[in-house]
Recover the amino acids of this structure.
């Protein structure tokens, strides 16, 4: 009788379109994947997969098999989550995060995951939203915390939080006493998010005007560097205020009063829809609770219909 390991292997080969992708996903070798598929085909008595030059595709029987494989794997994941203890949630979850998350609740999330799911490991990569989205769609990561939501028929999203963006500067610049206009701000270098990000484009549009001095816009992929440059008085930082709360409390940075209104940054947890996403959904729920300042509770998983 076909076991769950062979059925899971079949499902991921079809989902990812390759034996190599399934091997990477299941942390095994391509020969092991081939052996499991051959065993499954012997047991069901039909050919389930066919290869072309670029990818592996299911046969007509394979497409029928896929319907039941997704149901079985989904039910197994749900059963383990509802009935099993937390140690049953195991494996490696590849998580991609925007750097704003690194400076806000990521450390708390790691501690919460370690405590709640001791056998679940996180592989964390930090990147800009556009790259995270591409890596998610390429299935190089399984969960992304990014500026979202990400649209697509196979993508699920969970809103995490909204962060306000402010103009922040060192008290040494002497800008904290009065309300500032865009002309006042444009006299100083502006330090902000990296290029090819929505916040960078918004900031750039504010200062790329013919009635303003030539724009001095410093972009950095490291928000830690942006904070440090602002603290040293090298310019005005335009970043989420949530990542500099301690610096503002210590008087190293001050929030400037301006007549400019910047849109909120909405961060989402995004993942590809599949039958085996219980661990991903649980981590996304933990992240949402922490991001919104709530108390983390282990709510029961709702049955899927």
């Amino acid at each position: 009788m076909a076991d769950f390991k062979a059925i899971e292997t079949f499902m991921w080969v079809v989902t990812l379109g390759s034996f190599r992708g399934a091997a990477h996903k299941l942390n095994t070798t391509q020969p092991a994947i081939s052996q499991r598929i051959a065993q499954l085909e012997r047991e069901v008595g039909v050919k389930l997969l066919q290869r072309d030059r670029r990818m592996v595709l299911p046969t007509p029987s394979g497409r029928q098999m896929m319907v039941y494989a997704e149901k079985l794997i989904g039910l197994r994941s749900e059963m383990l989550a509802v009935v099993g203890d937390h140690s049953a949630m195991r494996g490696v979850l590849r998580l991609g995060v925007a750097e704003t998350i690194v400076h806000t609740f990521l450390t708390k999330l790691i501690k919460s995951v370690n405590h709640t799911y001791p056998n679940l490991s996180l592989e964390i990569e930090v990147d800009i939203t556009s790259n995270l989205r591409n890596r998610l769609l390429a299935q190089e990561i399984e969960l992304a915390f990014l500026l979202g939501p990400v649209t697509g028929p196979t993508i699920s999203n969970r809103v995490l939080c909204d962060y306000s963006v402010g103009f922040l500067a060192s008290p040494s610049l002497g800008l904290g006493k009065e309300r500032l206009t865009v002309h006042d701000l444009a006299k100083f270098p502006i330090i902000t998010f990296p290029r090819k990000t929505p916040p960078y484009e918004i900031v750039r549009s504010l200062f790329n005007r013919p009635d303003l001095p030539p724009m001095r816009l410093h972009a950095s992929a490291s928000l830690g560097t942006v904070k440090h440059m602002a603290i040293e008085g090298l310019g005005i930082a335009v970043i989420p205020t949530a990542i500099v709360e301690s610096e503002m409390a210590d008087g190293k940075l001050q929030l400037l009063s301006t007549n400019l209104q910047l849109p909120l940054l909405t961060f989402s947890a995004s993942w590809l829809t599949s039958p085996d996403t219980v661990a991903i959904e649980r981590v996304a729920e933990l992240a949402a609770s922490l991001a919104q300042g709530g108390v983390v509770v282990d709510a029961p998983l709702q049955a899927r219909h």
User: Anything to note?
Assistant: The chain has twelve helices and twelve strands. Residues 60-83 form the longest helix (24 residues).
